Amino acid sequence: MRLVELSRSEHRELRIRGDRVEACAASQHLIPIVVGEFRKAATQYPIVFAKHPETGRFAPYVLSGLGVAENLFWSGTELDVSYVPLNVRRQPFYVGMDDAPDASAGNVLCIDLDHPCVDSAGARSIVNADGTDSAYLKEILAILGELVAGKTATEQFIAALLSLDLLAPIVLDIVLDDATPLQVQGLYGLDEEKFRQLDATQIDSLWRSGHLDLIYAVMIASGQIFKLIRLKNQRIALSRAWQGNAR
């Protein structure tokens, strides 16, 4: 990765290949999301929580695979889903902090110049001929804006769950169609039993803060684990069929 601050003048000739954007998630089994994505994400993926390996802080993710570096929605050319998370769609752009001595502490737009999306053959440009932001760059800025705006709300939601002790480790013990046992560990989910034990005052507080709807989205999304199991079984069956035909 080679992150640099985007310069409309210095990088005006850069081109982005949009067909490679989703490929960056081909080996991601956990994709970070913000609370503003919960409702859409719940229609496709399980929503889980995991601790950041360095900070130990909880964050929400969509689970897209049952193994490390596995995305069961990746078809080989695209993500076969109706909703692609913001953290995928923003590639190869990032939000950085301006740490220059004479700069105020603010966000700056960065780009990974080593990202496979950055390609001279790409159809998408950064700026128009007159130097103004292209429609594509405006779209990226809107996506990054959602992520930045959603950061605080997401942290507040996590804090609310922790204050009520509603996060608990989950271990998925799965037996696939070929009798292969599979365990997925290191994830946390909503403790539904403790949630049902909350009193009226606590439920009212969750409702007024907008967190109750998010909790329900997480609960609904938990059923998407069966979709992942089905996709895993299908992938194994296709692999075996291909190996059989190759003999």
Distance between the termini: 40 Å
The largest beta-sheet arranges its strands as 1-7-6
Q: What's the β-strand tally?
A: 10
Total helical segments: 7
Radius of gyration: 21 Å
Structure report:
The chain is α+β, with helices and mostly antiparallel strands and 247 residues long. It has a domain at 21-92 and 113-122 and 154-242. The protein contains seven helices and ten strands. Strands 1-7-6 form a three-stranded antiparallel sheet, covered by helices on one side. A hairpin with a 5-residue loop joins β9 (167-175) and β10. The protein is flat. The two termini are 40 Å apart.
What's a quick, concise take on this entry?
The chain has 247 residues and is α+β, with helices and mostly antiparallel strands.
Please outline the helices and strands.
Elements: E1 3-5, E2 15-16, E3 30-32, H1 38-41, E4 47-51, E5 58-63, H2 86-89, E6 93-97, E7 107-112, E8 124-125, H3 135-163, E9 167-175, E10 181-190, H4 192-196, H5 200-209, H6 211-221, H7 225-246
Index terms:
single chain, 247 residues, alpha+beta, three-stranded antiparallel β-sheet, 7 helices
